Amino acid sequence: MNATDFWDELHERRGAGTPKVNARLVEIVGRMSPGTALDLGCGSGGDALWLAARGWRVTAVDLSGAAVRALRARGGPITALRVDLAEGFPDGTFDLVSAQYFHTPFELDRARVLRTAAGAVNPGGRLVVVDHGSAAPWSWDQDAEYPTPDDVAAELDLDPAEWSIDRAEAAERLATGPAGRTATVIDHVLILRRAGR
After folding, report:
1. What average pLDDT does the chain have?
2. Four-residue CA torsion sign, 26, 27, 28, 31
3. In the structure, what pLDDT confidence band is assigned to residue 144 with cuts at 50, 70 and 90?
4. Which of 40, 88, 132, 151 could join 99 in a cystine, given CB atoms 3.0 to 4.6 angstroms apart?
5. Is the per-residue pLDDT at 5 higher than 80?
C-alpha cells in the first residue's frame, strides 16, 4: 500500500465525526493574535477549524484527498489543499506554520519539508513542531523512535541570526484514545520564532 492509499483509507475509516483540535496547539497558540496560518498534515481538520474559529486565515494541506474533501465539505474560511509534501509545497507565507504530529510510516524527507516550512514563515512568525515523544497504547506504531526537540532543531540547522528557540521541551499530557481510553504520553515541543517585526 502506498502513502496516499494508507492515509485515504485511515480518514475514510474515521468517518465524519467532529474533528478535535490538538491540545498542544491550543496551549501554544491560544494567546497569539490571529494572522495567517499553515497547517501541515491537517488530517481531519481539527486544528484548522479551531484556528479559523479564532480569526486565523488558514491554509490546510494533507496528502489524503479524503481528508481534504471532508474538510472542504465542512465549509468555512479555510483553504484546504491536497499536497504531497514529498513533491511540493503550498504557495504563500504565514505568521504561523504548524506541524502537529507530522509523522508517517512512509519515506519522507521530513527535515527538508520543515526547512521549506521555515522559509514560508513571515518575519516575527513562528514554526511550531509538536512530535510524539512516546507511543500511546493505541498507537499504530509502537516501535517508533521519535526525535527530540533538540534533534529537530539541529536537523533544521536554521540561521541563529534569523531564528530563536522559544521553547524546546518534552512535556507530559493525558491523552484520550479510542473508546475513551486514557494514557499519559509525552509530546516533544519545538517553537521557533523568526526575527522581525
Report:
1. 91
2. positive
3. confident
4. 40
5. no
CB 99 within 8 A of CB 115: no
Nearest to 52, CA basis, from 32, 28, 33, 77: 77
**Of 6-10, 29-33, 50-54, 189-193, which gets the smallest average pLDDT?**
6-10
Question: For residue 22, what is its C-alpha cell?
Answer: 490538538
Greater confidence, 12 or 180? 180
C-alpha distances (whole Å) from 112 to each of 6, 99, 185 are: 22, 13, 27
- Which three cell numbers, joined as nine digits, stand for 18? 467532529
Nearest to 46 by CA among 64, 71, 73, 24: 71
Tally of CA atoms within 13 A in the half-sphere of 16 that contains its CB: 5
What's the number of CA atoms in the CB half-sphere (13 Å) around residue 2? 5
Decide: residue 44, CB within 10 A, 0-12 exposed, 13-18 middle, 19+ buried.
Answer: buried
Helix 3-14 × helix 65-73 angle, to 10°: 40
